[in-house]
UniProtKB/TrEMBL annotation:
GO BP term, pick one: iron-sulfur cluster assembly
Cited PANTHER family: IRON-SULFUR CLUSTER ASSEMBLY ENZYME NIFU HOMOLOG
Record's protein name: NifU family SUF system FeS assembly protein
Top-level division of the source organism's lineage: Bacteria
Record domain NIF system FeS cluster assembly NifU N-terminal: where: 10-129
Family per similarity comment: Belongs to the NifU family.
Entry-linked Pfam families: NifU_N
Native species: Enterococcus columbae DSM 7374 = ATCC 51263
MF annotations from Gene Ontology: iron ion binding; iron-sulfur cluster binding
Amino acid sequence: MALSKLDNLYRQVILDHSSYPHHHGKLSTSNQQIELNNPTCGDVIQLQLAIDEEGIIQDIAFEGHGCSISTASASMMTDAVIGKTLAQAQELSEAFSQLVQGKTITLEDELGDASMLSGVAKFPARIKCATLAWKALDKAIENPNQTTITEEIKHEE
């Protein structure tokens, strides 16, 4: 496949996730809610997780508003982590962070469609957009006993 056709495929997948996000909405039952916003651009995500007693993400959903990269990334993240343990989800989050910074990773297949956001590395101003949902997931993993978390991304992150 020619590079331009591959680029078009990547763009189409990102546009599809942005226009028709997976796991968008609210969960009827959740045991953790995180709201995270990026004051730099105004993107906001509310992430809800249903985590079972073994630490497996049984269900996940998000709401909020943001650019197409932020929305697509949230949709891709939910697809990648549902059914995973918190440790597996954290590993995927770390891999995604490395990927969008232009680093080589070994978990590209496990990221699914999220691996298509590797091109964000060429646009440093968009990295926070791509990582917003993943940072919200990180906050949930870091604070498993806190049911509601509301934070802003700090400028140094």
